[in-house]
Amino acid sequence: MAGRSLVLVALLALACAGADAAGASSGDAQRFGRFASPARASGTMTMVLTYEGTSKAGCDAAGTCGVKGTVTARLVMDPARKVAAVPGGIVVLPGKGGITATASSPRCSERLKLTSAGIAFTGDAGGLLLRPGAFVAGVGAQDPFATRCGGPALADLGRPDILPAVRLKKVPTSVTDVRLRFGGTTRLQRAGYAATVSVRGSLRLRAA
To answer: What is the mean pLDDT of residues 64-81?
Structure first.
Protein backbone atom coordinates (compact mmCIF):
# COMPACT_ATOMS: atom_id res chain seq x y z
CA MET A 1 0.00 0.00 0.00
CA ALA A 2 1.63 3.17 -1.17
CA GLY A 3 1.79 6.72 0.07
CA ARG A 4 -0.29 7.89 2.99
CA SER A 5 -3.28 5.65 2.25
CA LEU A 6 -2.23 2.92 4.65
CA VAL A 7 -5.09 0.90 6.10
CA LEU A 8 -4.57 -1.06 9.31
CA VAL A 9 -7.08 -3.83 9.94
CA ALA A 10 -7.04 -5.21 13.48
CA LEU A 11 -8.76 -8.35 14.75
CA LEU A 12 -9.75 -9.08 18.33
CA ALA A 13 -6.99 -10.15 20.69
CA LEU A 14 -7.78 -10.84 24.32
CA ALA A 15 -4.78 -9.54 26.24
CA CYS A 16 -3.93 -10.87 29.66
CA ALA A 17 -4.03 -8.48 32.60
CA GLY A 18 -0.84 -6.52 33.06
CA ALA A 19 0.41 -6.99 29.49
CA ASP A 20 -0.23 -3.34 28.65
CA ALA A 21 2.78 -2.17 30.65
CA ALA A 22 5.32 -4.68 29.38
CA GLY A 23 7.88 -3.16 27.04
CA ALA A 24 5.70 -0.14 26.34
CA SER A 25 6.05 1.27 22.83
CA SER A 26 5.47 4.98 23.39
CA GLY A 27 6.24 5.80 19.75
CA ASP A 28 3.24 3.88 18.39
CA ALA A 29 0.97 5.42 21.04
CA GLN A 30 2.18 8.94 20.28
CA ARG A 31 1.72 8.47 16.52
CA PHE A 32 -1.77 7.07 17.03
CA GLY A 33 -2.72 9.98 19.29
CA ARG A 34 -1.49 12.53 16.77
CA PHE A 35 -3.39 10.80 13.96
CA ALA A 36 -6.62 10.32 15.94
CA SER A 37 -6.97 13.79 17.42
CA PRO A 38 -8.17 15.54 14.23
CA ALA A 39 -9.58 12.39 12.60
CA ARG A 40 -13.20 11.61 11.70
CA ALA A 41 -14.90 8.42 12.88
CA SER A 42 -17.62 6.27 11.34
CA GLY A 43 -19.09 2.98 12.46
CA THR A 44 -21.01 1.62 15.43
CA MET A 45 -20.33 0.31 18.91
CA THR A 46 -22.67 -1.72 21.12
CA MET A 47 -21.99 -2.50 24.78
CA VAL A 48 -24.14 -4.72 26.99
CA LEU A 49 -23.90 -5.17 30.76
CA THR A 50 -25.80 -7.80 32.73
CA TYR A 51 -25.37 -7.78 36.49
CA GLU A 52 -26.59 -9.41 39.66
CA GLY A 53 -25.61 -8.87 43.28
CA THR A 54 -24.43 -12.23 44.62
CA SER A 55 -22.90 -13.44 47.87
CA LYS A 56 -19.89 -14.83 46.00
CA ALA A 57 -19.22 -11.34 44.63
CA GLY A 58 -19.48 -9.81 48.11
CA CYS A 59 -22.98 -8.36 47.91
CA ASP A 60 -23.41 -8.36 51.70
CA ALA A 61 -20.58 -5.89 52.23
CA ALA A 62 -21.45 -3.86 49.13
CA GLY A 63 -25.20 -3.72 49.79
CA THR A 64 -26.04 -5.14 46.35
CA CYS A 65 -27.77 -8.42 47.24
CA GLY A 66 -30.83 -8.98 45.06
CA VAL A 67 -30.00 -6.13 42.64
CA LYS A 68 -30.30 -7.41 39.08
CA GLY A 69 -30.58 -5.89 35.61
CA THR A 70 -29.28 -5.20 32.09
CA VAL A 71 -27.91 -2.10 30.39
CA THR A 72 -27.51 -1.81 26.61
CA ALA A 73 -25.65 1.13 25.04
CA ARG A 74 -25.33 1.71 21.29
CA LEU A 75 -23.52 4.53 19.54
CA VAL A 76 -23.43 5.46 15.85
CA MET A 77 -20.33 7.57 15.16
CA ASP A 78 -20.76 11.06 13.71
CA PRO A 79 -18.21 11.57 10.88
CA ALA A 80 -19.11 15.28 10.69
CA ARG A 81 -17.42 15.90 14.05
CA LYS A 82 -13.74 15.55 14.89
CA VAL A 83 -12.40 12.89 17.21
CA ALA A 84 -10.40 14.07 20.23
CA ALA A 85 -7.35 12.37 21.74
CA VAL A 86 -6.99 13.55 25.32
CA PRO A 87 -4.33 13.11 28.04
CA GLY A 88 -4.29 9.70 29.64
CA GLY A 89 -4.41 7.73 26.39
CA ILE A 90 -8.12 8.07 25.58
CA VAL A 91 -9.74 8.80 22.21
CA VAL A 92 -13.21 10.34 22.49
CA LEU A 93 -15.54 9.42 19.62
CA PRO A 94 -18.56 11.71 19.07
CA GLY A 95 -21.82 10.23 17.90
CA LYS A 96 -25.51 9.69 18.50
CA GLY A 97 -27.13 6.79 20.28
CA GLY A 98 -28.95 5.62 23.33
CA ILE A 99 -28.72 3.73 26.61
CA THR A 100 -31.52 1.40 27.71
CA ALA A 101 -31.54 0.14 31.28
CA THR A 102 -33.94 -2.40 32.75
CA ALA A 103 -33.80 -3.78 36.28
CA SER A 104 -36.03 -6.48 37.73
CA SER A 105 -34.91 -5.85 41.30
CA PRO A 106 -35.55 -3.12 42.21
CA ARG A 107 -37.94 -2.73 39.25
CA CYS A 108 -36.80 0.13 37.01
CA SER A 109 -36.49 1.19 33.38
CA GLU A 110 -34.72 4.17 31.87
CA ARG A 111 -33.67 5.51 28.47
CA LEU A 112 -30.84 8.00 28.06
CA LYS A 113 -29.01 9.65 25.17
CA LEU A 114 -25.50 8.46 24.40
CA THR A 115 -23.35 11.12 22.74
CA SER A 116 -19.80 9.73 22.89
CA ALA A 117 -17.66 6.68 23.54
CA GLY A 118 -14.02 6.22 24.46
CA ILE A 119 -11.15 4.08 23.25
CA ALA A 120 -8.16 3.59 25.55
CA PHE A 121 -4.82 3.17 23.79
CA THR A 122 -1.40 2.27 25.09
CA GLY A 123 1.88 1.00 23.67
CA ASP A 124 3.17 -2.43 24.64
CA ALA A 125 5.72 -4.99 23.49
CA GLY A 126 3.55 -5.98 20.53
CA GLY A 127 2.81 -2.48 19.21
CA LEU A 128 -0.40 -0.75 20.29
CA LEU A 129 -3.36 -1.99 22.32
CA LEU A 130 -6.76 -0.32 21.98
CA ARG A 131 -9.75 -1.03 24.22
CA PRO A 132 -13.03 0.18 22.67
CA GLY A 133 -15.62 1.38 25.16
CA ALA A 134 -13.20 2.61 27.81
CA PHE A 135 -14.31 5.35 30.20
CA VAL A 136 -12.20 7.72 32.28
CA ALA A 137 -13.91 10.42 34.31
CA GLY A 138 -13.31 14.01 33.24
CA VAL A 139 -12.14 13.44 29.65
CA GLY A 140 -15.43 13.86 27.79
CA ALA A 141 -16.38 10.24 27.08
CA GLN A 142 -19.72 9.16 28.51
CA ASP A 143 -19.97 6.18 30.87
CA PRO A 144 -22.24 3.81 28.91
CA PHE A 145 -23.53 2.00 32.00
CA ALA A 146 -24.26 4.96 34.29
CA THR A 147 -28.03 5.03 34.87
CA ARG A 148 -30.47 5.62 37.71
CA CYS A 149 -31.61 1.99 37.72
CA GLY A 150 -28.86 0.85 40.06
CA GLY A 151 -26.19 -1.61 39.09
CA PRO A 152 -22.55 -0.82 38.40
CA ALA A 153 -21.40 1.90 36.03
CA LEU A 154 -18.37 1.07 33.90
CA ALA A 155 -16.29 3.22 36.26
CA ASP A 156 -17.30 0.93 39.15
CA LEU A 157 -16.01 -2.18 37.41
CA GLY A 158 -12.39 -1.10 37.46
CA ARG A 159 -9.62 -1.04 34.90
CA PRO A 160 -10.16 -1.08 31.11
CA ASP A 161 -8.78 -4.65 31.04
CA ILE A 162 -12.36 -5.91 31.34
CA LEU A 163 -12.90 -4.72 27.75
CA PRO A 164 -11.79 -6.53 24.58
CA ALA A 165 -8.39 -5.54 23.26
CA VAL A 166 -7.58 -4.79 19.63
CA ARG A 167 -3.93 -4.85 18.60
CA LEU A 168 -2.20 -2.78 15.96
CA LYS A 169 1.28 -4.22 15.44
CA LYS A 170 2.64 -0.91 14.15
CA VAL A 171 1.41 2.65 13.66
CA PRO A 172 3.43 4.31 10.85
CA THR A 173 3.88 8.07 10.70
CA SER A 174 2.08 8.04 7.33
CA VAL A 175 -1.12 6.39 8.59
CA THR A 176 -4.31 8.09 7.37
CA ASP A 177 -6.91 5.34 7.67
CA VAL A 178 -7.50 2.82 10.49
CA ARG A 179 -10.24 0.20 10.42
CA LEU A 180 -11.11 -1.89 13.46
CA ARG A 181 -13.46 -4.80 14.01
CA PHE A 182 -13.90 -5.92 17.58
CA GLY A 183 -16.01 -8.10 19.80
CA GLY A 184 -15.64 -9.92 23.07
CA THR A 185 -17.29 -10.87 26.35
CA THR A 186 -15.85 -10.72 29.87
CA ARG A 187 -17.33 -12.25 33.02
CA LEU A 188 -16.20 -10.78 36.31
CA GLN A 189 -17.05 -10.31 39.97
CA ARG A 190 -16.44 -6.79 41.23
CA ALA A 191 -18.14 -4.10 43.30
CA GLY A 192 -20.53 -6.65 44.79
CA TYR A 193 -21.80 -7.89 41.42
CA ALA A 194 -21.43 -10.89 39.19
CA ALA A 195 -21.38 -9.14 35.82
CA THR A 196 -20.98 -9.84 32.13
CA VAL A 197 -19.71 -7.13 29.77
CA SER A 198 -20.01 -7.60 26.00
CA VAL A 199 -18.58 -5.18 23.43
CA ARG A 200 -18.85 -5.43 19.66
CA GLY A 201 -18.65 -3.10 16.69
CA SER A 202 -16.68 -1.72 13.79
CA LEU A 203 -14.88 1.56 13.50
CA ARG A 204 -13.12 3.53 10.81
CA LEU A 205 -10.88 6.48 11.62
CA ARG A 206 -9.81 8.69 8.69
CA ALA A 207 -7.56 11.70 8.68
CA ALA A 208 -9.53 14.95 8.46
So the answer is: 96
